[in-house]
């Protein structure tokens, strides 16, 4: 995985394959002892590879080594699918290693990393392996390209051990003239973009092996995870005196927001193209990508999706009705909209959401006349940087809500938990005032050396600035009058108390802005119970170390129980972004706590050792989604008649408390 464009050294004669005469390492050998030591005799570790029959890489090699690679482009998906099949299909780990070594110097580095990552995550014999952080291997997708010149300089001139971290400017993509730029810390956050890349790695929408795609409730999770992203983004907008994001629902209308990424690809040696303000979508005709699609194709797919929602059923490829008018409808609709290969009818409902990414990412060069590649919206590792991502996903979510509001509101028995009453909630930040959450800026370092080709070995750190909050503890008082021990699921959400005009909110609007902070199971003894839970335990987040894990540092001992835990997937919202930034004067919020009846929540399965610490947004590897309720419950549907405000919606097992999120503009370094 490391140094994606540097060649692998193969010793002639001993290697299993013929090494081409013009192999880079051969050419370097006579002229540089350093390169020789890097690639040859002084290598720290030599790994013998087993002889195999040469795999047929014609399809994977049809993508140029220096091309950009996007899963949203159907031709690239097919190419990736072929390589994944090759990696999945070999019998043993030794064979996989040989095939991977053979493929690595021949196929596109992005493609190689993606296909091997998917295979390692899904092969039964490699599931426990750790994947290095994608940001370390491909830092060019995450940071200002100017950093790399400085990193090279530091690495070349300064010996390992004395190197200083290179500081990534705090906000480098635009000036304050652009109001959208206030959200830079969210859109360009490394952890958020890594989460999104990882989510799509764990939930691919296409693969030769259907089982790789067909995971429990994956369509519903596509809806829910992205719904929460839009809700979180809106809370950040409120934290910057901006109104809710406007959905991009008219595909003929110019996109008001421009975006200039200021990133260069280290693989393609090209800059990520910008999108100017007021760019319109155009019909696509790009021979190289085998894309020939009109904006009207998108509109037809959308109209058919709306028709299916309003009819309450979709039509599969054999003409049968697939009901959508029940709790399971959202899962099918998610697969239809995204779309994934388990969509009941891709020829009818098309590939709406994915191709939306493609149309937007090619809006600057729709017929390839300028030989430009896609913009950041074309890659799941970079898409969330662009303001239009949230406009597109606000529209996607709006269509999902069109379906959700047709379902009957939850009845009292579906919400209430007989005999269980939430009698008090308090949120206590460490060393701070109760019910006042604190945010500030923090500087942290990430090692970029794994992704920097042809620079001397050793770590080179980049220092970046991100939002952070003071850790806090929830204290929840719950009364159990049932006379026996009961189990409950505690569901914690945070939402804004007022809208952008500072008016109180109706349930129907507020429910869409409720962000999940945590969900966990508790045992309730008869009588009063006091539940304490720390913000770092959240079921939506993973700790900083997991997001940016470095294989060399902080790594638990091999074979230890900690290592098992550590190895699981890197999917998860970054904990440093758990709560919104808030305002210097305080953003008024409502914190909602519900204890639902575990008998109606429980999913019978064994969860030990299965990557479950960010389950709310990422699910659990190889397991069912660990909550039987619809995702987003109880806010995924409209309120009962007469309960038009959150306070009227509450049953005794729910409660709310006013919370203020206060932002302090100070910057603090991460404690070592
Ligand atoms: Cu995650 Cu549109 O699905 O980016």
Give an account of the 3D structure.
This protein is an alpha+beta fold. It has three domains: 106 residues, Hemocyanin, N-terminal domain (Up-down Bundle), CATH 1.20.1370; 226 residues, Di-copper center containing domain from catechol oxidase (di-copper center containing domain from catechol oxidase), CATH 1.10.1280; 252 residues, Immunoglobulin-like (Sandwich). Helices cover 30% and strands 17% of the residues. It has 23 helices and 16 strands. The strands form five sheets. A seven-stranded mixed β-sheet has the order 1-8-7-16-15-10-11. It has a three-stranded antiparallel β-sheet with strand order 6-9-12, with no helix packed on it. Helix 11 packs across helix 13, helix 11 packs across helix 16 and helix 15 packs antiparallel against helix 16. It binds CU2-O2 cluster. The site of CU2-O2 cluster has 8 residues, from helix 9 and helix 15.
Strands, helices and their partners?
Blueprint: H1 24-28, H2 33-39, H3 74-89, H4 93-104, H5 109-122, H6 134-137, H7 146-157, E1 166-167, H8 184-187, H9 190-202, H10 210-213, H11 218-238, E2 284-286, E3 291-293, H12 295-311, E4 313-315, E5 321-323, H13 329-338, H14 346-349, H15 352-361, H16 387-404, H17 412-415, E6 420-429, E7 436-447, E8 461-469, E9 472-480, E10 486-496, H18 507-510, E11 515-524, E12 527-534, E13 541-542, H19 544-547, H20 561-567, E14 573-574, E15 587-597, H21 598-601, H22 615-618, H23 646-649, E16 654-669
Parallel strand pairs: 1-8, 7-16, 13-14
Antiparallel strand pairs: 2-3, 4-5, 6-9, 7-8, 9-12, 10-11, 10-15, 15-16
Helix pairs in contact: 3-5, 11-13, 11-16, 12-15, 13-16, 15-16
The site of CU2-O2 cluster has 8 residues, from helix 9 and helix 15.
């Amino acid at each position: 995985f490391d140094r994606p464009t540097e060649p692998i050294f193969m010793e002639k004669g001993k290697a299993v394959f013929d090494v081409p005469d013009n192999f880079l390492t051969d050419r370097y050998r006579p002229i540089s002892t350093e390169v020789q030591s890097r690639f040859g005799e002084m290598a720290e570790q030599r790994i013998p590879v087993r002889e195999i029959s040469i795999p047929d890489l014609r399809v994977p090699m049809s993508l140029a080594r220096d091309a950009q690679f996007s899963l949203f482009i159907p031709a690239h998906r097919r190419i990736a699918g072929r390589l994944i099949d090759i990696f999945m299909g070999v019998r043993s780990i030794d064979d996989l290693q040989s095939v991977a070594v053979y493929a690595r110097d021949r196929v596109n580095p992005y493609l190689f990393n993606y296909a091997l990552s998917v295979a390692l995550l899904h092969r039964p014999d490699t599931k426990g392996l750790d994947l290095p952080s994608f940001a370390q291997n491909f830092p060019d997708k995450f940071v200002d390209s100017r950093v790399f010149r400085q990193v090279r300089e530091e690495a070349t001139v300064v010996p390992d051990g004395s190197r200083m971290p290179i500081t990534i400017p705090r906000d480098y993509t635009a000036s304050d003239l652009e109001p959208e730029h206030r959200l830079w810390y969210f859109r360009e956050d490394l952890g958020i973009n890594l989460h999104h890349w990882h989510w799509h790695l764990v939930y691919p929408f296409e693969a030769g092996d259907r089982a790789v795609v067909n995971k429990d409730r994956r369509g519903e999770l596509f809806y829910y995870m992205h719904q929460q992203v839009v809700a979180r983004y809106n809370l950040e907008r409120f934290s910057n005196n901006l109104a809710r994001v406007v959905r991009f629902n008219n595909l003929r209308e110019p996109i008001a927001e421009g975006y200039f990424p200021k990133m260069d690809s280290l693989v393609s040696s090209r800059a990520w193209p910008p999108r100017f303000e007021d760019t319109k979508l155009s019909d696509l005709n790009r021979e190289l990508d085998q894309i020939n699609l009109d904006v009207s194709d998108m509109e037809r797919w959308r109209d058919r999706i709306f028709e299916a929602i309003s009819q309450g059923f979709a039509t599969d490829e054999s003409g049968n009705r697939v009901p959508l008018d029940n709790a399971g409808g959202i899962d099918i609709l998610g697969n239809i909209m995204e779309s994934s290969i388990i969509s009941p009818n891709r020829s009818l409902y098309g590939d709406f959401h994915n191709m939306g990414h493609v149309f937007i990412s090619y809006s600057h060069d729709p017929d390839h006349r300028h030989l430009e590649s896609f913009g950041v919206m074309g890659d799941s590792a970079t898409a969330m940087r662009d303001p239009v991502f949230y406009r597109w996903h606000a529209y996607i979510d709006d269509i999902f809500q069109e379906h959700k509001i047709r379902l009957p509101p939850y009845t009292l028995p579906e919400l209430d938990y007989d005999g269980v009453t939430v009698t008090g909630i308090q949120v206590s930040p460490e060393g701070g005032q109760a019910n006042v959450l604190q945010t500030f800026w923090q500087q942290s370092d990430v090692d970029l050396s794994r992704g920097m080709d042809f620079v001397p070995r050793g770590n080179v750190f980049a220092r970046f600035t991100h939002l952070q909050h003071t850790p806090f503890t929830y204290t929840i008082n719950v009364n159990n009058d049932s006379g026996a021990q009961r189990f409950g699921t505690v569901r914690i959400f945070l939402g804004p108390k007022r809208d952008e005009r500072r008016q109180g909110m109706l349930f129907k609007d507020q429910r869409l802005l409720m962000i999940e902070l945590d969900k966990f199971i508790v045992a309730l003894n008869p009588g009063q119970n006091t539940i304490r839970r720390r913000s770092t335990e959240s079921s939506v987040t993973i700790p900083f170390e997991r997001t940016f894990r470095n294989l060399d540092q902080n790594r638990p001992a091999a074979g230890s129980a900690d290592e098992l835990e550590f190895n699981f997937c890197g999917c998860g919202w970054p904990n440093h972004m758990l709560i919104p930034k808030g305002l210097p004067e305080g953003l008024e919020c409502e914190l909602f706590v519900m204890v639902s009846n575990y008998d109606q929540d429980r999913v019978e399965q064994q969860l030990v050792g299965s990557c479950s610490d960010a389950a709310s947004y990422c699910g659990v590897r190889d397991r069912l989604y660990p909550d039987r309720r619809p995702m987003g419950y109880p806010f995924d549907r409209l309120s009962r008649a007469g309960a038009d405000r959150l306070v009227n919606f509450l049953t005794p097992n729910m409660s709310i408390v006013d919370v203020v999120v206060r932002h302090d503009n100070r910057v603090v370094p991460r404690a070592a």
